[in-house]
């Protein structure tokens, strides 16, 4: 080997000097050793700049075959450089000597292999269109190549016509690289390339099945078939079906697992131009994939048995190929690929870990099921195999099974400039505020929920493009569009191998599976399939050719190994400016979950249009899961479409009404409308709007003719449990008061609710909420505090009672505890009829200075005298600085002593300042024990309509029940 550049240049200079064959062979061998591609690219350029290409072409005319072998090997490496190719073809017309050599050495394995390699390396420079030149000027090269493949496909070959696997692989590669938009028809129709390759494919695939040999050659044949299938030329199908050895398309199934993606892409390309369903073995391929998945990756229970990511490369390829087959409408029927649908549902259900790989696979599977939504038989097949339950489990897999919609959040409002600000609760007025009835009332029918920007049609289309795998193969370029044709095929050959890494696996399962177009290869490293050491003998040359070819073909494939991992990238040869957007590989779990949720929502939306209705869609779990997908509830993971609209669409059928009334779904929607923060909180407003929309739709169903009949039948004819469940939610959904009265009074709905108050605590709480909803929303019962606030202005009394110093007629009241209280006899007689009769009438006490009063407390009596002194004869609202017990005792005394105006004043004062969730049970118990029945109705009214939390309300009612209410 040359040890320096000067030695290599010395060898190049020696080519220009006439030498004997032995010396020339030695020079050629030394040159060949220094021309490894792409490592020695500079040496190849030196061969061109030193003007040695012409000498190499002239050497081909020498009769010694061992010299010809080495020279062809050198020229093959030089052909990797496009400028060298142009000189060799344009200036030295190398095509003619190559054709001449083939004619005289038709049976030489080494020479044929090297010439085929030169042809392939020459034709991979697509812009130069050397393939067109060869077919037009030297068609013998193509004819000879085709004839060689035909002979090799025969079963019994004479020894002199048996070619090595490397030579056959180079012939296949040359025919593949000769292909372009202008040569496809002559290659297929005139030269019979596919018929010859098909015959060889049958023979090689049979040998591979039996002995697992010639896998490299078989992969090259599959690559050729894939490239030819891209041109949508119907004669290609006919040629492959009518080979000398039979229908070669049927043998695709036999080698399916060798290169599943390539074979599926061949079928999918041909299916666009096929005329009969029987022309392509689609059903057989689907069955093969199904058997592989079931036998190797799924156990009888349908759960995954592969590694902890849930996927091996073989598993992925099988699942992905089935999904790709279902992309084409022709395959979406029960006879062809319909049997795959149950398996895909089972595979989808088998994923249990929400990692990146499994989420991407789930997106692919759900997206594929989405493509089947326009075929009624496939929809029924999905429903038959419980796809709704599987989708529900996937949603619960993402959001959990708690069923909670509301999230704990701080009060947020949007400022004028669009920034969110926290609401300062302390800035709110400390005045007791009205209960905001509007927070749980229904909007008018023309009010709609304002959709978020993500719910626009453009966003939906964008998501469908991201999650969809439907990619149509572009048609072949027209024969007149030279620039397009050149840029379309300006690339390195792509591999046939399957996915080789987890990174490629994740990319393959990405919802957007078409990668960026490969880079321009004019100035990039090119590779071919010849890296052997040149020797003289044919036998050694053949042997080395095989090993070298394999190594160099691997180099050729390495550069673009990831470009064809995706199932649908037949458009990968487009120019650089037409790159398809791709989901970034480092997509977060959150983004993947959002994509999966979107695809599931789209699929469920399609099921909502099915007639008859699907009962599983109207369950509480499904509706809650769909609402959880909405951006109104989940800020991080949410669908890109408005799932609230999907729920409304589902609720358009009255058949879901009674099942939903028997569940807690309606009650949950009613709770959504309860504002946790102020009206300025955006999150609370979202919850409220969603609740209004859902309940308005249910109200429409309930007040329709069918709905009214169903509810009446449930109340009158159904068993007790159903009557209870239906009655509990009637106040939440009815807006017609006459209808409510009919159900509550004539259908015994009110009796059912009142009886539930005596049940266990859970049913009692639900009955309390229902009664409160009916009282506030339908019966319009006023809050006692609101009523008191609308009365006359409050008069504050801070003084304490004491006898005036100038009092002339003092009377002393002696109480039960022995205490005494003095008062002005004349003042009492003037202001109270009771005391006038007692102190100035015909009673014994009228002549006594000390009067005994029973069941009276000094503090209460003093407060009464103070009020009697302060207030006029008419009642007015007062704020007496006394405790609640004293005020209640004053109420009893004012009723006992016939002081009606004082009683009304104290009643207003207690109602305005003392009624609360904590004091209502106390006041109610006092009303019962005192026998006055004062404030009793007000206590119940407050308990029903007060703006307090459910926990406070339940505790208050529990205390009321203990006090004797109900």
Q: Could you list some keywords that capture this structure?
A:
966 residues, mainly alpha, Potassium Channel Kv1.1, Chain A, 3-stranded mixed beta sheet, 46 helices, BTB domain-containing protein, BTB/POZ_dom, SKP1/BTB/POZ_sf
What's this, in brief?
With 966 residues, this protein is mostly helical. It contains 46 helices and seven strands.
Task: Please explain how this structure is put together.
The chain is mainly alpha-helical and 966 residues long. The protein has a domain at 784-914: Potassium Channel Kv1.1, Chain A, CATH 3.30.710. The strands form 3 sheets. The chain has a 3-stranded mixed sheet. Strand 4 and strand 5 (820-824) form a beta hairpin. The protein is elongated, with a radius of gyration of 46 Å. Residues 807-870 form the BTB domain. InterPro entries: ARM-like, ARM-type_fold, ARM_ARMC5, BTB/POZ_dom, SKP1/BTB/POZ_sf. Residues 444-479 have a biased composition (Polar residues). Residues 411-497, 512-561 are annotated as: Disordered.
Write the layout of secondary structure elements.
Layout lengths: L4 H11 L5 H13 L7 H9 L3 H7 L5 H14 L3 H10 L3 H10 L4 H15 L6 H8 L1 H14 L12 H13 L6 H7 L2 H19 L3 H15 L4 H8 L18 H11 L11 H15 L16 H13 L14 H11 L5 H16 L4 H9 L2 H13 L12 E3 L5 E3 L34 H11 L14 H7 L13 H7 L29 H21 L30 H19 L12 H9 L14 H8 L6 H6 L2 H8 L9 H21 L2 H12 L3 H14 L3 H10 L2 H8 L4 H18 L5 H6 L5 E3 L12 E5 L5 E5 H7 L1 H8 L9 E3 L5 H13 L7 E3 L3 H13 L3 H14 L6 H11 L5 H10 L4 H14 L3
Parallel strand pairs: 3-7, 4-6
Antiparallel strand pairs: 1-2, 4-5
Helix pairs in contact: 1-2, 2-5, 4-5, 5-8, 8-11, 8-26, 9-10, 10-11, 10-13, 11-14, 11-26, 13-14, 13-15, 14-16, 16-18, 17-18, 18-20, 19-20, 20-27, 22-27, 22-28, 23-27, 31-32, 33-34, 34-36, 34-37, 37-45, 39-40, 41-42, 42-43, 44-45, 44-46
